[in-house]
Amino acid sequence: MSVLTSKMILQDQTEESLVLIDNLLALALISTTDNHYQHLQDARLLLLSASTILNSCITTSDAANTTLISELVRYYSQISINQVQLELELQNYDLAKKLIKNSIKLTSAYNSEYLAEELATAAYIDYKIEDFSLAISGSIDALSEYRQLGDVLGIKRMKQILAASLAKLGLKKEAETVMQLISQDPLGEKDYTIFAHDFT
């Protein structure tokens, strides 16, 4: 192994360690109750640092090293979701939406294995900001990804968002149908695209 290769591996491991430490510190700060608002602001900076480092590592990594890129994207996805959850707590919905959109774009390009949770997060944001038509299409997309993973809990959560969004739009009968399908179709095998409407 060359000295240059050794230095590159050490640098990657150091940056990866910094990212993990920043993420863990941010999570610890978020969970504290004393001086909570200030801790959220500190956590924002740590998560921003972590996501910036990861984004740089992803874009400068050798494209042939798919294992490394996949791992980096997995970390990036998780940190993005942590950032989004923090921004939601601070009621910064526009920023939360922007963060998850960027993460979905990156994950879609490099490793769709982690897409389900990001799509689910986007659907939840749309529900929170009362964009129920987007919440419906987003929850259906996320449900489809969760189905491919066999994630029964994720499928159930997306049906709940789908049903709640339909109800908010006054589509009570369809909402009730989806609620029944939570228990009747736990694996999400039915065609849920029938609940997507053109709301324009």
Give me some keywords for this one.
200 residues, mainly alpha
**Could you state the order of secondary-structure elements as H and E?**
HHHHHHHH
Estimate the mean pLDDT confidence.
83
Q: What is the CA–CA distance across the termini?
A: 60 Å
Main sheet attributes: strand count, strand direction, barrel closure: none
Q: Which structural category fits the helices and strands?
A: mainly alpha
Q: Give the overall shape.
A: globular
**Number of alpha- plus pi-helical segments:** 8
In total, how many beta strands? 0
What proportion strand?
A: under 5%
Question: Residue ranges: pLDDT <50 for 5 or more in a row?
Answer: 1-11
Number of domains: 2
User: How much helix, percentage-wise, in residues?
Assistant: over 70%
Radius of gyration, in angstroms, nearest whole number: 19 Å
Q: Can you describe what's shown?
A:
The chain has 200 residues and is mostly helical. It has helices at residues 3-31, 36-60, 66-89, 93-110, 115-128, 132-149, 152-168, 172-184. 37% of the residues are buried. Residues 1-11 have low confidence and may be disordered.
